[in-house]
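Lecture 7, part B: from sequences to assemblies.

Below are the input chains for today's worked example.
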Amino acid sequence: MSEATQAIPRSQSPSLRGAPREPARARRRIPDTVGLLAFLAAEIVFFSIRSPYFLNWDNWVNILNAIAITGVLACAGTLLLVAGQFDLSVGSGVAFVGVVLATVAPDQGLAVAVPLAVAAGLGIGLLNGFLVTVVGVNALITTLGTLAIFRGLTLVIGEGQNIIVDDFAWATERPFLDIPVTALAFAALAVVFLLVMRLTVYGRKMYAIGANPVAARLVGIRVNRSLFLAFLLSGLCMAIAGLLATSQLGSTSGTTGSGLELAVVTAVILGGTSLAGGVGTIQGTIVGLLIVGVLSNGLTLLNVESPWQQVATGILLILAVAFDRLRQTVLARRA
Amino acid sequence: MSAAAAPFLSVRDVRKSFGAVEILHGVSLDVAGGSVLALLGENGAGKSTLVRTIAGDHQPDSGEVLVEGRPLGGRDVGAARRRGIRLISQEIADAPPLTVAENVALGDWPARRGLLSPRRLRREAAEALAALGVELDLDAPVSTLRMGERQAVEIARALRGDGRCLIFDEPTAALSDAEAERLFAVIAGLRKRGVAIVYITHRLDEVFRIADAVCVLRDGEVVLREPIAAVDRDAIVRAMVGRELGGRPARPAPPASAAAPAAPAVELVAGSSGEAFAEVDLALRPGEVASLYGKVGAGALEVAEAIFGMRRLDGGELRVGGRAVRFRHPADAIAAGIGCLPGDRQGQAIFRPRSVAQNLAAPSWRALARGGALVTAGREAAVYRHWHDQLGIRSRNDPAQEIWQLSGGNQQKVVLGRWLQRGSRVLVLVEPTRGVDVGARQEIYRAVRELAAAGSAVLIATSDYEDVVHAADSAAVMVRGRIASRLAGDAITVEALTDAAGGVVHV
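Predicted structure of the full complex, as structure tokens:
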């Protein structure tokens, strides 16, 4: 191990610009998630002092359950943003999957309804992928469009009603350590995505595409093919999240899942995935999810009203992105 | 044109430094109204710095710029503009979505109390274009025009509001033959109207066609300043290069196989691609370094792109190992054993935020993966360490180090290692020494020679003759999309290359 990588004080002042480059390099080696973990720890300490219930296992299960649906979507969201892409249609997708399930189940039974609902989610992913990679519409525009389309279709099919789905409460069962299936499903999916991004050729390709799409093409990566698959995976995550959400609530409505797309983007960016692409991890996203989840849970325990919780979450997002910009600027200046 | 006329523009002993480096060491020159001064010099001689100083974009450290005998005054582009000086830079700086008329008026819109006058805008644009003898649809978006037409719009803009001294920075670099002819006619017209013209170019044939006088810069000093009648082509080249004319640096002897050339690994037969190049024949043989040399826009880089599957051929044939192939994606070329070092390292080659190991392993991920899908950082690291030692990459030898932290030359070595690891037997090097410092340049040349010695077929596509002179066994010189001449062995000299690229072939 070289001496340069160890024992570097964290607070090297920025005024060292132009000084030997070793300290700068070494400072960059401190994982970006360290700051976020510190932030999370501060939250936990703060809320555990202010509220006696906060550290209870029950409360932690609540937090996990609260972030699970967002978390499922954020897995694919991280993969996409690492490659420089967005999917804003996930909230509408969850509602659409739910309404397909709820309208088909009473007549055809769950055995038909569930596969159809999954197909609905995959279909949205297919459509997004086709528009972005084959037609060449920008991902932001494409998924803004499909966000509106599938929210509208959900309202048309469900006639704006709250539809009860009977005998579909599997996601609320607690098979292990008193943790609901929803949270366990998220945990399992997170592990799968983590391994895909860290260990597979496909994961490597996605990082390369996000870092430099032109160079990716020139090392032989078929960029559009890889991105298409990612949008399809996002569709699969919508299907899973849709089934979980419907089961959790026992019903679905026209407003199910609205705002989820923003919650996903918040968590992913907060977790250190760069908007410029090529940088980001599932672990980071999990930390991002926890920061938002713990904040919201803690504020609820302190009886802070929900509108103020929204204000707090918004401020958090901006702070995180501002921090990312600053990091990029410093990075560019040192090049 | 009369020699007695007082110069419109005078540059007096101008010095300019950036940081500790002095770029211009006291440059003086005169340009009379109604005359064309050709400004020549190698890359880095200080031409651009000089004209930007004249145009008020840089301020001289000492010395002065006089217009009609009076100092420029003011410290910005506006001051020079008001005195009638206009710089038409190498890159066209227009607003593509706006119309021709709007682009002619760009930055100087005819308005009354802040309200735009569309009628005046159109009328003035029409006048400016008519003065150039150019007919264009005033309402067409500039994005729909051809390169030469866009340049005409730039010139029309420059002439608006009393443009009396026009500086052209390599205007024909991006033009077709016909468009260049058009430009010469325009310049002749301007000259007749009494406009003073400074014309930067690399093409000697153009100099003798349009210039009244020549000024050659070398390393920030004027080394030649004569009326055109007093110089010949050789004198200009000698002044530009300033050393060892005709010879070339000592290099390893040509490969032993030179007597009986090996079968080509890659062969391009009568290859054509759109307007980029036509009927290009090229053979890349194992053990040899071939080169394509030409000014930017001459087609050399585009041929390299076609060989690497980045550009489709619409005529002719590409053969790999004797068999005809059609590349639709660089992945096809890579699978056929071809690797490429692109010309724009930052934009086309490296993954800035990723580790050196991943940057090096990228095309080999599948080969390195267990079961074709699972890559491990450990295998990537081992591969990186191997090439780190082989290629002498100067870094911390930490496979996780992000590549942007390496110097340009060492980044280039990582990109080279990428293809060596992939086992590519054919390497296409585009502008391999662009942005690379002098020391690393020599190392790259040596690496290229070693690659060939080890049996690789190498192609260098470049606009820098040093690359050709130092590293290549053979050179095909491209002019405006076609191979104008071929040189081999000791016939590859700076003089021969410069001459051939200028479009005139000496038999």
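Note for the exam: Confidence is low (pLDDT under 50) at residues 244-248, 503-507 of chain B. Keep this in mind when comparing with the next example.
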